Amino acid sequence: MKIPQLKKKSEIKTCHNVSWEDNYSWIHQADILEVLKDNTKLNPEVRKYLEEENSYTDFHLSDTKEIQKKLFDEIKGRIKLDDESLPFKDFDYEYWSKTTAKGNYSIKLRKKIGTNNIEEIWNGDEEKEKLNVEYFGVGDLEVSFNDKYLGYSLDTKGSEYYTIYIRDINTKKLITEKIEETSGGITFSLDDKYIFYSKLDENHRPRKIYRHKLGASIKEDQLIFEEKSEAFTVSISLSSDDKYFFISSSDHNTSEQYYFEVNEINPKPKLIKKRQRGVLYSVNSWDGKFYNHTNENAEDFKVDISNSLDKPNWKTFISAKAEVLIGGLTFLKNWIIRSETSDALDKLFVKNINTGIEEELIFSDETVYVPGVSLKQRDKNTDEIYLSYSSPKTQSRVYSYNLTTKVKRLVKEQEIPSGHNPNDYIVDRIDCKSHDGKLVPLTITRHKNTKLDGSAHLLLYGYGSYGSSMSPGFSSTKLSLINRDIIWVTAHIRGGMERGMKWWKDGKLLNKKNTFEDYIASARFLIENKYTSKNKIIGMGGSAGGLLMGAVVNLAPELFLGIIMAVPFVDSLTTNLDHSLPLTVGEFDEFGNAKDKKDHFDYIYSYAPYNNIKKMDYPHMLITTSLSDNRVLFDEPAKFTAKLREYKTDNNLLLLKTEMNAGHGGKSGRDGAIEEIALDYAFALKICKKI
Question: Lowest CB count within 10 Å: 125, 142, 143, 180, which one?
Fold first, then answer.
């Protein structure tokens, strides 16, 4: 089949006296945000190119149709399709959700406490059918405090422009006008007369908080708060004791918070503490006290406490620890539960408010696992909570746990209908040395029969941005590769926070290349220690992890058999120079500001994947994107693919797959998500010659 060719239209770009040619920049439309809302506005020439690439991908993966179907059935076969969540007790009702074998979306149910009358208050599949849309994304699903109203927000394009609806649960009728172009969050007032929501501006940034009176015209909505900086976005939440609303305004590096009492007739948010560059803080209230989770004078966070916000006198409640990330708090009447992260492992601690005694909640003798905690009920005068646990080889287990008696009872275990034995798998946690001597944690999961003599193929997953830590929990989908003797490794590289804030700082801005070097060092370590061999590694990453893939494939293509990148941030210089795009200005503290700072420009220019494509051999590559993605525009991977076709000197596969009705998260619905995974895995098995 003929290789797709994107037309070249030379454009010379210049910044800080540096000029470069971009032959494919013409595919970016000035009205791109309008295209995200309505993709019929896409340039027909660009649409034709994307469709040609899709046909080319389908042609070269036609021999994987059978294995894609087998993988789909395998992955779906590990999911209990008819399943129910554990209940959450509100004051008068219990709420829970369920899924069915026939459906793709969840159903929300409730039962009045003391009765057996179960009501279905939401059915995602029925709602999708009513709207007659291909993409169906649910942003929020909230029940009001008097249990009378259901608020929900929907995105029917994938572009993350959410429309809010409020309806009466009993009559099923909408009680107010739909509210369009919101960020999706819904917060009810305690008297159920109002909702609070954030509105998206012309650049798709939530910078305004409005209050809407239920039943009134949206023209009467009251602006409660407006953020003036284009780099900051806003959200609103209710305090743990239901006494205050907190408005948070933040970018990735700095935050500022305001508050007002829940019963204020005309809310006037008060500033808690003026923003200070590099300082993150989040205040919550509980039992007459205020708790501040902050990194001020505490790089890896601490928690301070004060009796007042009018004239706060902050005192240390939980002290900072070196290279131990102090997490947020969960409150009960007599208990405070918190988390810590160090060496890419999470821990949970519980503190008795009355005695001051704190102890760790230990789940298992496994060295690598993910603990979790959630509340069983809204009434916090209880000693009962849900504790959850999973590991790379052990499926999720949820326990009902009594904090006083310390008795735990298994109440739900993730069921794998096709069968699963954790003892068939081996999990290792090993540190490898990076280019500068720093030790990078690797979580390695393999089948017990997979040989460690260099003969095995290996998938190396990485992300390394925004301080996001890759928790080593259970994923039944990965078993489809692991069971075929492909070792799965997650590299906890810099740019995440697996080893605290410094681990993040050392992988962003002018330290971003550490992220790439850590990943390359991980690959070399795995080769040297016979987990795999050169040209047997498949790299995988999405979004900012796609930036990672694009950078490392330019730096060390010889290490990889193949690369799988989803919605990849590969034209990072062009995006960073365009301050009108949704995420650019809010990420200056993550990636830099190339337009206004020459050192930032020079640094980004030196690693940006699109700008650093060379005439050389590249490994097999599968690149996936979505037409309505507002976070990483489809034109980034499209341009990257076109330029690779122009420069690469090999005959390896280079495939671009664009979902024409999806966004950053890919297809909607359970089956859609499984189809995408099956495609990725089929590509991996094809290049590993395991079909």
Answer: 180
Mean pLDDT computed over every residue of the chain: 97
Catalytic residue of the set 28, 212, 447, 664: 664
Mean pLDDT of 133-155: 98
Phi, psi values for residue 225, rounded to 5°: -155, 140
Confidence of residue 364 (pLDDT cuts 50, 70, 90): confident
- Bridge partners (DSSP) listed for residue 283: 292
Establish whether 83 is a catalytic residue: no
Q: 439 near 432, Cβ under 8 Å?
A: yes
CB 508 within 8 A of CB 479: no
**The pair of three-digit structure tokens given for residue 18, joined into one six-digit string:** 């540096």
Residue 585: what are its φ and ψ, rounded to 5°?
-70, -30
543 is catalytic: yes
Distance CA 200, CA 332 (A): 35
Q: What is the DSSP letter of 297?
A: T
> Smallest Cα–Cα separation from 389: which of 364, 354, 411?
364
Reported as a pLDDT band with limits 50, 70 and 90, residue 304 is very high
**How confident is residue 226, by pLDDT bands cut at 50, 70 and 90?**
very high
Q: Between vectors from CA 162 to CA 156 and to CA 168, what angle results, nearest 5°?
A: 95
Enumerate the H helices of 105-178 as residue ranges: 124-131
Catalytic residue, chosen from 250, 339, 522, 543, is: 543
Separation between Cα atoms, residue 475 and residue 46, nearest integer Å:
37
High-pLDDT (> 70) share of the chain, %? 100
pLDDT, position 12 = 98
pLDDT band at 365 (very low <50, low <70, confident <90, very high): confident
User: Which residue is associated with the tokens 């998206």?
Assistant: 200
The pLDDT score that the predictor gives to residue 355 is 95
Domains and CATH numbers, the chain: 40-76+419-687 (3.40.50.1820), 81-322 (2.130.10.120)
CB atoms within 10 A of CB 644: 21
- Catalytic entry in 629, 635, 668, 680: 629
> pLDDT of 551-607, one tens digit each?
999 999 999 999 999 999 999 999 999 999 999 999 999 999 999 999 999 999 999
> 407 with 490: CB under 8 angstroms?
no
Instruction: State how far Cα 223 lies from the chain centre.
Output: 29
- What is the Cα–Cα distance from 73 to 42, expressed in whole angstroms? 35
Stated as kind and residue range, the H or E segment containing 166 is strand 162-168
Q: For the chain, percent helix, then strand, then coil, each to nearest 5?
A: 25, 35, 40
Query: Of 527, 525, 516, which Cα lies nearest the Cα of 463?
Result: 516
**Is 492 noted as a catalytic residue in this protein?**
no
* Contact residues for 107 (Cβ-Cβ < 8 A; gap 6+): 97, 98, 99, 100, 120, 122, 123, 124
pLDDT digits (tens, 9 = 90+) for 149-198: 999 999 999 999 999 999 999 999 999 999 999 999 999 999 999 999 99
Q: What is the DSSP code (8-state) at residue 610?
A: G
The residues pairing with 212 across neighbouring beta strands, listed in sequence order, are: 195
Q: What does the alpha-carbon distance between residue 38 and residue 651 come to, in Å, rounded to a whole number?
A: 37
62 CB-near residues (< 8 Å, 6+ apart): none
Distance in angstroms (rounded) separating the CA atoms of residues 8 and 5: 9
Q: Three-state secondary structure along 186-219?
A: CEECCCCCEEEEEEECCCCCEEEEEEEECCCCHH
Burial class (CB in 10 A: 0-12, 13-18, 19+), 416: middle
**CA gap 225, 214 in Å, rounded:** 19
